[in-house]
Amino acid sequence: MRDEVTKMSTVIETQNLKKKYRMGNLDVSALSGVNLRVEAGEFMSIMGPSGSGKTTLLNLIGALDRPTEGKVLIKGTDISKLNDDELAELRNREIGFVFQFFNLVARMSGLKNVEFPMAFAGVSQEARKRRATELLERVGLGDRLDHKPTELSGGEQQRVAIARALVNNPSVVLCDEPTGNIDSKTGKEIMEILRKLNREQQQTFVIVTHDPFVAESVDRIAHMQDGLIVREEILR
Ligand SMILES: Nc1ncnc2c1ncn2[C@@H]1O[C@H](COP(=O)(O)OP(=O)(O)OP(=O)(O)O)[C@@H](O)[C@H]1O
Ligand SMILES: [Mg+2]
């Protein structure tokens, strides 16, 4: 029983996760056996030097790429057992992504950018607009709905990206250097928004970062080096 309860609250588990990239006739080992567990409601960070495998790990956890060896379980489902369609469906339902360079669609307004992922989840036009507006209000952009990305500051664009990541109510939001491309004051605001979403909605976050400020504001840090988690630090 106890075991079952534990399992139910685990959002992500990786088992001996390995990833090799083939470069010509050379194998580059990006991950060499990562075991990571993320529980529902966690606000945690992955830190490590450039090239240590952080993005590779995030992409595997987010089902954007497949491992060379080992497993990724998302809410207990071994995603290696899924075909490409099932994988895309699971990704759309369970995972939100926030990237360093925002990755918004340039010709669409903030509102449309946030509505977009719901089109694949079979939500009516009216409900999409309502939900997107509500999320943009939650990240403090209620008065910027019709602005296109070029008409928004970096921090505002990142807030649109955060709203978009939340739209299908994902089990976890994966952020790769969410403050990497904005100034430190705006980065602080972004972290406050993420923390608030974590506290108030129990939204789970995994945040890859170089930024010591970001790392200070999380509950737990997994430190990576040479494709491995070498140390875990519990902060609160
Ligand atoms: N598509 C690829 N093909 C070949 N090698 C790759 C590929 N992607 C990453 N690598 C290599 O895998 C290793 C891990 O890369 P990764 O992008 O995960 O690092 P990172 O920790 O995210 O670094 P950074 O902090 O600079 O973003 C690096 O040595 C990198 O050169
Ligand atoms: Mg990276």
Structure, described:
The protein has 236 residues and is an alpha/beta fold. The chain has a single domain (2-234), classed as P-loop containing nucleotide triphosphate hydrolases (Rossmann fold), CATH 3.40.50. Helix content is 37%, strand content 29%. The protein is built from eight helices and ten strands. The strands form two sheets. The protein has a six-stranded mixed β-sheet with strand order 6-7-8-3-9-10. α4 packs parallel to α6 and α5 (125-138) packs across α6 (154-166). The chain binds adenosine-5'-triphosphate and magnesium ion (MG). Residues 54-55 line the site of magnesium ion.
> What kind of sheet is the major sheet?
6 strands, mixed
Just give the CATH class. Alpha Beta
Number of strands: 10
CATH topology: Rossmann fold
What fraction strand? 25-35%
Shape: globular
Poorly predicted runs are none
Distance between the termini: 27 Å
| Overall CATH architecture | 3-Layer(aba) Sandwich
Strand arrangement in the largest pleated sheet: 6-7-8-3-9-10
Roughly how many Å is the radius of gyration? 18 Å
What compounds sit in this structure? adenosine-5'-triphosphate, magnesium ion
Helix content: 25-40%
- The CATH homologous superfamily is named P-loop containing nucleotide triphosphate hydrolases
Number of domains: 1
Number of helices: 8
**pLDDT averaged residue by residue:** 93
What is the H/E order? Answer: HEEEHEEHEHHHEHEHEE
The helix/strand class is: alpha/beta
